[in-house]
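Q: what does this look like with S-adenosylmethionine bound?
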Amino acid sequence: MPGSASQYNDPMPNTPPIPSLFLERMSHYLGDEFPAFVEGMNHPPVSGLRVNTLKLTPEQFRAISTVKLGEKIPWCPAAFTLPALESGNPTPGSHPYHQAGLYYLQDPSAMSPAEMLFSVPLRDHERILDLAAAPGGKTTHLAALMRGRGLLVANEIKDKRVGHLIQNVERWGAENVVITNETPERLADHFGPFFDRVLVDAPCSGEGMFRKDMGARLDWSEEMVAGCAVRQGNILRVAARLVRPGGYLLYSTCTFAPEEDEGAIAQLMDEFPEFEVVKLPQLNGFMPGRPGWLAGMKEDERGLDGAVRLFPHRVRGEGHFACLLRKAGAWENLPVGRVDRFLAPNKAQIGFWRDFVSAVLHVNLAEARLRAMGERLYYVPDEMADFGRLRVPSPGIWLGSLKKDRFEPAHPLALFLKPGQAKNCVDFAAGSRETAAYLRGETLESEGQPGWALVTVDGWPLGWGKRVQGVVKNHFPRGWMV
Ligand code: SAM
């Protein structure tokens, strides 16, 4: 055997070891390349920062960033690697620009699936589903690539993971996202073959995360890999029903196990012969899909070598797998329409909203897109769909609350606004005492016009404050404080 599992010396003492059976499997699959893989596993994990291109360009961000950035990530033009933190440098997760939604922190390899899904160019009016969306890494990426157009449905099955997804989408400020909290089955029963593109970023055994996720090391077993493959098969079978004729399905995992990668796709293609693999771009360092790692399969079995595998010893990122499939049929271009079950606000409520806009904002939002859910006012995507009785925790941008006699703005409205869209701003510098105090929920002193004011950091909207006699009452939500 060219490489052996015993070559691996864990660089992090006092951490659970990488399972030796996993290393034996990798040695068997990788052959001559196994020593390089082991060497790669000895390095610390790589972090990445993806700029929110709905708000600014990567070049604009680089010019203002006080977080040190590394090189550009070759497969994601909006992203940079992050060098290891030096003491004294701001941690990117607690920086005010992060709270302003200027970027998302993500493993560079996890930025490949959204880019790969768009290796087929986006058309107008597309309906896209992110079936397993929390905490929202790929949703925010898809939303940026869609540039606020069409409809993006971000679904998460687990109730307790939905809150985090909502918060990340709200921070991103995308206006075309509806969040659902459903099983894939209920979505497929309701929608049928409705979506132009479906992303299945499947729950998996997480082998690709072993450098940074100690829990994944502890949980791993061959039985777990087999169990994940069964679950992935069940999810894919349902996802296939949600893709329109001529539409696309992108399947991704963060594991190396071929049973969960090429094996899951081969099984899908057995059951749904109308799907074929679309060859993905093989960028520098990527490895083609390896169906030959599975018993009885050839190296190019059913075009599965058109998938991509990312390995930590080949690219600056963790382990990932992505495969794009196309469903047979003519891909018609159908606008989504505007029929939905949510109520339009009544006349009085529209009046409160208009009063608020004329006093506080410089925006002109289409009133046809306003919806009232209880006391909440939302701005739904331009191309809305009918969600029937599905659970929809967020149908769009939460603008604010409709009180008995007035409108009160909500935090997501602040993050949806662009610089210059509020009449009354309180601006502080990123490194200032005031910005830190605002993000801690403290009251601020600032003379100026009384009433609602947008608190901004170097001009970027951060949240709301209400000024009364030179004191700005803090409306930054408690749950968002770092
Ligand atoms: N796409 C996310 C991102 O980029 O931030 C990460 C998704 S994570 C790999 C997989 C998700 O699948 C988890 O949020 C998990 O709750 C969800 N999940 C677990 N079981 C599922 C099932 N049976 N059907 C659909 N989703 C499931």
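The pocket of S-adenosylmethionine is lined by residues 110, 132-138, 156-158, 161, 184, 201, 203, 231, 235 (CB under 6 Å). The chain has a mean pLDDT of 95.
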